[in-house]
């Protein structure tokens, strides 16, 4: 796992080089990647399709963006995506722990990854956010890349890597308590099912999965990931509180729709913690909601980076067949 | 201090009664307030002025809103404000610890406080967000109200109450570490100066105040609230990291402008904590920024409610003449 951060003092250095485009030889702390595929961020791809229409026009737009910016950053959405490739060169001072020949996926946005495209994206019809691509990318000392495991299909490994911060932080938070009760809102999704497995391993005494539909509840029950599987609309505070029942010590929010803040707060006992992983979380709604409810809860912004998070999530998936089954079911 | 929350099971009950308007006699867990003044939220007042123009028209608009909604909630901004008044009746089961005759300020938004106006706002010219008002309001079991202290002017006490969550949570977080280094971004403001005083009292070893201007730096130096006072634009990540120097264990963000997330993360050591109090904080910017920087930092959403926060902040102000001087200087 190439997740070790560089020395603290260099943290500021990475952004300065971002726009420079990849160099043929790595700098002292850099790693050069022969790119195999880009996965465009879903929001970015959707915007490009809406603006440009045909697949050929979308392809031309991506080429133009990378030619101009030296990286794939959608100028409208601001977002990027990730890439897969093989390490071709490693600078002598690289802290990432990678070796030539390693197949890797980047865990830092493409918006921070210098990229050159060498094949004109000839193998991509523009009809999917999965972009076959021959090209070159550069990772910095503070980049994060995960070695793709030999024992898991690429698509499965990538799906796990996409959400690997959630189970790692859930593990940490659950271990702050002694045999706590834990609720995961959106327990049937990717980050949700991994968070349930992480909470169980970290010692959760009572584990509640909240999901929106009976079909999803049945899937989570089959996967055996929770003690209780309850159905409620996570945007309805009273419905969430009622469904969860006795307030829990830790609530993990993995529902990617706006408006889940108050339900999460209501479901959490005083002295408890809410971890918000959903990017749809509203900072003011959480802050003012907890204040308005006089709720003495700690609220964490789900930091997607925890040292060792990728390996931790892969291990969970290997150890919990129920999680893998949910992931594979979602892929179909 | 009437800050004790009601039993957990009743948390969901308060909103249901919100729109009903005040009743003449308190319910079992209610408190009736003879209103003396409303302080409209700044954003709400600005919107009303822009929409309605003259003071008389603004007054009519506020009367119409309260008549229609049973509470002062600006339909455009969604925000309310707070009120001052005197307790006239206390239900037998009220958990707020208030007695008839207490002068109080509400710490929960007017948007959650049933209100009836009895004087047509005759004493208000509509030219300020401070609204003299005779009327009746009702607090619920889960409302939060603070008794106004006898030894501080109302205006000063209200200014402290407005930000009292910040020093209380800063105290908690700083005590999670052993003699930590602490930086407060926006250390010259109300929540910032109180947070500096709280961090000092909680055992901060090295205390850095970051402010935007030389004038503010001079004021914070005179107040003696920090070991180091540094000047930087909190929206410039590298400038913040450079100004703070050695990364700190705890960073407290009290700068009420957007774009301070990355600087706060960069200024914080691995294993450290960032507490975001600014309502201008962007959840995705914080989450994705920390991930992109591979920063192993804990990020807290500043919950404005901590049990005992109002009394805690008043005590800090009394004990730290420098804080009081800053507050009084800002009022002029």
TrEMBL record, chains A, B:
Pfam families (alphabetical): KDD_N (PF26370)
Domain L-erythro-3,5-diaminohexanoate dehydrogenase N-terminal: 26-149
Low complexity composition bias: residue spans: 1-22
Annotated region (Disordered), positions in chain: 1-25
InterPro entries: GroES-like_sf (IPR011032), KDD_N (IPR058932), NAD(P)-bd_dom_sf (IPR036291)
Stored Gene3D superfamilies: Medium-chain alcohol dehydrogenases, catalytic domain (3.90.180.10), NAD(P)-binding Rossmann-like Domain (3.40.50.720)
Name this polypeptide is given: L-erythro-3,5-diaminohexanoate dehydrogenase
Organism encoding this protein: Actinokineospora soli
């Amino acid at each position: 796992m190439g997740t070790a951060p560089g020395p603290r003092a260099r943290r500021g250095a990475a952004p300065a080089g971002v726009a420079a485009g990849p160099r043929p030889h790595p700098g002292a702390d850099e790693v050069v990647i022969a790119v195999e595929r880009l996965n465009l961020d879903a929001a970015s791809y959707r915007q490009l399709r809406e603006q440009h229409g045909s697949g050929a026009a979308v392809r031309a737009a991506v080429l133009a963006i990378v030619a101009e910016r030296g990286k794939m950053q959608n100028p409208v959405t601001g977002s990027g995506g990730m890439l897969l490739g093989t390490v071709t060169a490693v600078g002598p001072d690289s802290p990432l722990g990678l070796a030539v020949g390693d197949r890797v996926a980047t865990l830092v946005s493409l918006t921070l990854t210098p990229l050159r495209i060498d094949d004109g994206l000839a193998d991509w019809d523009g009809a999917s956010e999965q972009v076959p691509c021959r090209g070159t990318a550069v990772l910095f000392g503070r980049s994060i890349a995960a070695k793709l495991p030999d024992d898991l299909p690429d698509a499965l490994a990538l799906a796990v890597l996409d959400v690997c911060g959630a189970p790692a932080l859930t593990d940490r938070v659950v271990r702050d308590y002694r045999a706590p009760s834990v609720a995961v809102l959106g327990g049937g999704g990717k980050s949700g099912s991994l968070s349930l497995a992480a909470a169980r391993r970290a010692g959760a005494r009572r584990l509640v999965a909240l999901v929106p539909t009976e079909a999803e509840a049945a899937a989570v029950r089959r996967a055996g990931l929770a003690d209780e599987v309850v159905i409620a609309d996570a945007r309805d505070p009273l419905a969430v509180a009622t469904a969860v029942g006795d307030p829990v010590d830790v609530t993990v929010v993995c529902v990617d729709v706006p408006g889940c803040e108050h339900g999460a707060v209501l479901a959490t006992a005083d002295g408890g913690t809410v971890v918000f992983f959903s990017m749809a979380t509203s900072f003011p709604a959480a802050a003012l909601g907890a204040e308005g409810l006089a709720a003495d809860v700690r609220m964490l912004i789900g930091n997607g980076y925890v040292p060792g998070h990728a390996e931790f999530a892969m291990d969970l998936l290997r150890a919990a067949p129920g999680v893998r089954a949910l992931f594979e079911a979602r892929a179909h």
